[in-house]
UniProtKB/TrEMBL annotation:
Parts of the chain that traverse the membrane: 12-34, 156-177
GO molecular function terms listed in the Swiss-Prot or TrEMBL record: 2-oxoglutarate-dependent dioxygenase activity; methyltransferase activity
One family name in Pfam for this protein: ALKBH8_N
Signal sequence range: none
Alphabetical keyword list: Membrane, Transmembrane, Transmembrane helix
Keyword flag Coiled coil: no
Protein's organism: Takifugu flavidus (sansaifugu)
Classification via InterPro entries: AlkB_hom8_N (IPR015095)
Residue ranges of domain Alkylated DNA repair protein AlkB homologue 8 N-terminal in the record: 123-161
Keyword Oxidoreductase: no
Domain of life: Eukaryota
Protein name per Swiss-Prot or TrEMBL: Alkylated DNA repair protein AlkB homologue 8 N-terminal domain-containing protein
Length: 271
């Protein structure tokens, strides 16, 4: 009887060992698969089409598809979007781009790295998204005040949770935003200030400081892609930067001309 019980226990131990070995092997296989899985998120192909010549752009798309296939990257065509920026008065509908036999959807706006871009290069869609997010954060800010949280903690919550949402990528869109959109965000900031109990920097002040800081970073970083562009417009007689010629209002309201204008408006001791 004792001998039979001992054999039974040994069988159970062997089964447990086999199960553990199988589990370990399965975990190792999963780890190997994960380590060899490749992801290529937020990939963008930008092409300039002139006089209706799309061959170079389409060849670039085909080259990317071929490169992805060779590197074992599977493209998700359903999540791939195409956005055409065209300011011509007479527009002809572009022929669709096809990947693996499927047409890529043409969209008027697209969310890239947390920023809403549209085919008019305006920022109303992005402002709407920021406003909705900031409103939800404002609710939590008011809830904190209802619990008699001190003003210092409210200000800390605003800076870390709400302001980080409102001013996300403000360097990109701050100079080109419409007045009505800027007023919406400033009203929201003013409401947050009444909850916190102190004055908060408005949109113009934050955008000005961040754009100048970003321009200084570019000037001090030789490896930055815009460093040579900014270095060429340095004045040989002062610390000022020469304002680039802007034939279009869209370019004048973009980052570089706006940042240079703000930088030149500073006092010499602040430059």
């Amino acid at each position: 009887m004792i001998h039979i019980a001992t054999d039974f226990i040994n069988i159970i131990i062997i089964i447990i060992i086999i199960i553990v070995i199988v589990i370990v092997i399965a975990i190792v296989i999963v780890i190997i698969i994960i380590c060899n899985t490749k992801y290529s998120d937020d990939t963008v192909i930008v092409g300039c089409v002139e006089n209706g010549q799309e061959d170079e752009y389409r060849d670039l798309v085909e080259s990317f598809v071929r490169w992805s296939r060779e590197n074992l990257l599977q493209l998700n065509v359903t999540k791939t979007k195409e956005m055409v920026v065209d300011f011509r008065k007479s527009k002809s509908p572009p022929s669709p781009v096809c990947i693996s036999g499927k047409e890529v959807e043409l969209v008027p706006s697209y969310r890239f790295l947390g920023v809403q871009l549209d085919n008019k290069l305006e920022w109303s869609t992005n402002t709407d998204a920021l406003y909705k997010k900031a409103m939800s954060r404002l609710y939590f800010l008011r809830r904190l005040r209802s619990f008699s949280v001190c003003s210092r903690m409210l200000h800390m919550f605003y800076q870390s949770v709400m302001a980080s949402t409102i001013f996300f990528a403000a360097v990109c869109w701050g100079a080109g935003i419409k007045a009505k959109d800027a007023n919406r965000l400033n009203k929201l900031i003013k409401k947050a200030g009444s909850v916190v109990g102190c004055r908060l920097d408005n949109l113009d002040e934050v955008v000005r400081d961040r754009m100048v800081l970003k321009l200084r970073t570019i000037m001090d970083s030789p490896s930055h892609p815009l460093h040579n562009t900014v270095d060429k417009v340095r004045s040989s007689f002062s610390n000022r930067l020469l304002q680039p010629r802007c034939s279009k209002e869209r370019y004048r309201k973009s980052f570089l001309p706006s940042a240079i204008k703000l930088y030149n408006s500073l006092k010499p001791t602040q430059q």
